[in-house]
Amino acid sequence: MNLENLRQKAYEDLKKASSMEELEEVRLKYLGRKQGELTAFLRSFKDMSEDEKREYGPIAQRLRNDLEQEIDEREELLKKQEIGTIDLSIPGVKIESGRIHILSKVYNDVCDIFHSMNFSVAEGPELEEEKYNFDALNIPANHPAREMWDTFWVKNDKNTEGRVMRTHTSPVQVRYMLEHKPPFQMICPGRAYRYEASDATHETDFNQIEGLMIGKDISLANFKFVIEEFFRQFFKDDKIEVKFRASYFPFVEPGVEVDVKIWGKWLEIGGAGMVHPYVLKQGGIDPAKWQGFAFGFGMERLAIIKYGVPDIRLFKSGDERFNKQF
Ligand code: DAH
């Protein structure tokens, strides 16, 4: 093997290499671990005599260093040339950007609208104490009304005794009353849980919006205005009509079912009523001095009506084709 020939050949090949691919071919041809010519030469070293090793060793090593350096330099040069030839007028690749989930949008819109009417936004725990989810809301143990809310109980141990995945956001009413002095008005959007089979209109977990307004003489008339105003803004429709149907919830008296006429159709939206004196007391508020309304709506239901979603299960499907439509 004539190392001088090898050097010449390699340098000629290098000069001809005009792309990164060709440069890589040259590198493999001479320095490649498997079939590189110089590599083969270096490998044959072990069979050489001491004299040969002494003669060729330094020359071969230098050749390898030179080639490596030369290849690096050519690579830099080629990179610069390639950048120089990029056509900046070619249309770019369209980047798919993420988007906010439709339920989050509804959540934000609801908060914005109530904010505009001076309502605060409150939160409460999803793993709730039995006393807030039921007892303080005038639903004592063994009360038949508990059957309206079949729930997930958490196994008793010393930290979780008597806790349930909250069946509604109503317990936040009491928590809020205990921490705030009236008058006040708040909403509490959040997740609730039910132990029931899921279908197109039911899920084991879903979202509600609780509302509470307490003052000296707050009545259902105030509620009617607030809720009509909310629907007008939420559905962007000034011709919205709202009606109440007498109903029963243990934590309000009287209790009503709220229907809204939207796009010519009456739809049931949720429950409401005047906060029961018992509940006010549980919240540390004197029912002889204060009164007010409460309501609870389904967040998914609002989204379903506004956006025509055919199945509640789609919200949590994680299917991009669903969320892309909004
Ligand atoms: N918590 C009730 C439910 O989940 C809804 C509800 C009805 C909430 C009447 C209220 C109310 O605040 O006044 O079924």
Number of helices: 11
CATH H-level homologous superfamily name of the largest domain: Bira Bifunctional Protein, Domain 2
Task: Indicate the CATH architecture of the largest domain.
Answer: 2-Layer Sandwich
Class by helix and strand content? Answer: alpha+beta
Uncertain residue segments:
none
Characterize the main sheet.
7 strands, mixed
CATH class of the largest domain, anyone? Alpha Beta
Task: Please describe what this structure looks like.
It is a single chain. This protein is an alpha+beta fold and 326 residues long. The protein has 2 domains: 87 residues, no CATH class; 220 residues, BirA Bifunctional Protein, domain 2. The chain has 11 helices and 9 strands. It has a 7-stranded mixed beta sheet. Strand 7 and strand 8 form a beta hairpin. Helix 2 runs antiparallel to helix 4. The longest helix is centred in the first third of the chain and has 35 residues. The chain binds 3,4-dihydroxyphenylalanine. 3,4-dihydroxyphenylalanine binds next to strand 8 and strand 9.
